[in-house]
Amino acid sequence: MAEVAIRGVHKSYNKVPTVHGVDLSIADGEFVVLLGPSGCGKSTLLRMIAGLEEITAGEIAIDGTVVNALEPRERGCAMVFQNYALYPHMTVAENIGYALKVAGTRKPERRARVAAVAQSLGIAELLDRKPGTLSGGQRQRVAIGRAMIREPKVFLFDEPLSNLDAKLRAQMRIEIRRLHQRLGVTSVFVTHDQVEAMTLADRLVVLNHGRIEQIGTPTEVYRRPASRFVAGFIGAPAMNFLTGTLAADGRIAIGSGAGTPVTIGVRPDEIQLLDAPLKGTLDFEIELVEELGTGQVFYGRSGEMEMTVMRNGGGEAALPRSGQRLFLKIPMTCVHLFEVESGRRIDLPPSRLAAE
Amino acid sequence: MEKRTLFTNKGLGIALVVPQVLLIFTFFYWPAGQALYWAFTLERPWGGGNEWVGTSNFTQLLGDPVYWNSILTSLIFAFSATVLAMGVALTMALLVDRELRGFRVYRTVLVWPYAIAAPALGVAFRFILAPEAGFMAYLNHAFPGLWNPALNGAQAMIAIVIAYVWKYIGYNFIFFLAALQAIPKSLIEAAAMDGSGLLRRIRDIQLPLLTPTIFFLVVINLTDSFTDSFGIVDLMTAGGPNRATELMVYKIFFDGFKGLDYSGAAAQSIILMLLVIALTVFQFRFLERRVHYK
């Protein structure tokens, strides 16, 4: 158990910078998820913590010790790899016990600890099998067991669930969360899957192009995205972005007009669908309907702008169909404003939205 | 399930197999059959028929200490050449595995020695290792009488082993490097996270996963060292000094074509063939058990 401090960390490959100055401190026992699209530097950051990549500049400290120059084995981290990285020529028991064997633990103790770990993960009956004969979920458990047995100070997960099918992924997600509650070990989890990130994280770190876009709890990141990138990346279906203006008196208008140009963001599930126009509603012509079971997603246009609207429930009344014209009401409290150039969030007290 | 193409048309299947069978028959079974026949006859050196002598060619050979010396020499050569060629190649491949810049270039360059015909190689090394010229002359000047493969049997053996190993290192290296590259990098990283150091990782992870390649190369290297060594011996030492480098394959040539003992040479090729077959069977029976295929 330990806290991890990342201070001004940079990484370049052949002088091409990929991580540009990341500062992040992870508290003892915290579960932090690094989230971002592929190539955003999240895995690189994780591998720098593990000691598998050199740190170009800045420093990383685990439990108060700067680990830049330390070998992976001296850092007290254990890692679960994306492709599990089980040793194919060893049995499950040998895989889990390898770290102990290297450390010179005696055989009886090794066997007892392997058995205990296997028991806690429900893979006790697999101990004599080779990894090649296991299913994806079983391999995943063995990989977690191999990380657990060292009783590490920090758990590192490098997209461990991405090779599993959807059902198993949801199940393993819960197991990982449960494991963290039981062991309370500081964990860093890398993923590009926002659902995984939202459900697992105590704190979420959203990365883009090697920079941190936002750090916060899943609720904070969802409710108050710090940038247009975060707003668009988190939430499904993705947030609608409209061009608009912000007048000096605080009035927000969609389309061009007087005032500073801004990007207006509204989540699809927060837009209200109306049958009749009211003051301030927008026209909406449906092009496509997706039935989700718990609700529907409507894709269509409002004038020039593409819009996505999501409605929960429904079903009793006749479903709106493609080609149908409806009206959208955008509630004031749900609007996010972003600077056009930098994409940064603009915080404003709620005011009136004037539709054209 | 393994995917196989099954021919519904039997004629096509046979037609595709025939060229290969013809080749093997013409260049292996027919000569081998002839040699087997000659081995049990006494062939007249100037032609004019042969007579059946039963196993007397073999009893004569196996009662001859000179022939036993040749077998022993061959075994020494085969094992030291295989161990050295594979050991050096494996070490090089392990060193290179981590740094891969320019891989294509040295992959090409390193396989060239294998393409050099043994006689050309023999000539080259005859000059390189000559006691009176080149590098060795400097050593001999500093330490008089240190190196002379023309007089010292052990040194002659070292010389042909070096030449042979030089040819096979590149070949083995390519196979080892390819096999090392095929080991997922994350396995090495996982072992590093598990606290395993560089040498320990080689021993616990890389070598076990290389066993299919090691096994394949042991078979190829041992077999080739019995048969592919002729040119080197012929040009570098001609079996000398005092038969110290008279390998079985060289003795076959010498007894047969220089000594005109066709029948004895035929019997020797049969023995050599049996020895290589026995070694290969042994490897498949006892070594292959320790191979981890996927």
Automatic annotation (TrEMBL), chain A:
InterPro entries linked to this entry: AAA+_ATPase, ABC_transporter-like_ATP-bd, ABC_transporter-like_CS, ABC_transpr_MalK-like, ABC_transpr_MalK/UgpC-like, Mo/tungstate-bd_C_term_dom, NA-bd_OB-fold, P-loop_NTPase
Sequence ranges assigned to domain ABC transporter in this UniProt record: 4-234
GO MF annotation, one: ATP binding
Pfam families named in the record: ABC_tran
CDD domains per the UniProt record, alphabetical: ABC_MalK_N (cd03301)
Record's keyword terms, sorted: ATP-binding, Nucleotide-binding, Transport
Record carries keyword Protein transport: no
Family, per entry: Belongs to the ABC transporter superfamily.
The name this protein goes by in its record: Sn-glycerol-3-phosphate ABC transporter ATP-binding protein UgpC
Organism in which the protein naturally occurs: Dongia sedimenti
Automatic annotation (TrEMBL), chain B:
Coiled coil: none
Membrane topology: Multi-pass membrane protein
Pfam families for the chain: BPD_transp_1
Major subcellular location class: membrane
Key words, A-Z: Cell inner membrane, Cell membrane, Membrane, Transmembrane, Transmembrane helix, Transport
Cell compartments where the protein resides: Cell inner membrane; Cell membrane
Transmembrane feature ranges: 12-32, 71-96, 108-129, 156-184, 205-223, 265-287
InterPro entries, A to Z: MetI-like, MetI-like_sf, UgpAE/MalFG_permease
SUPFAM superfamilies: MetI-like (SSF161098)
Domain called ABC transmembrane type-1: residue spans: 71-283
Keyword match Nucleotidyltransferase: no
Listed CDD domains: TM_PBP2 (cd06261)
Assembly and interaction partners: The complex is composed of two ATP-binding proteins (UgpC), two transmembrane proteins (UgpA and UgpE) and a solute-binding protein (UgpB).
Family note: Belongs to the binding-protein-dependent transport system permease family.
Role of this protein: Part of the ABC transporter complex UgpBAEC involved in sn-glycerol-3-phosphate (G3P) import. Probably responsible for the translocation of the substrate across the membrane.
Name recorded for this polypeptide: sn-glycerol-3-phosphate transport system permease protein UgpA
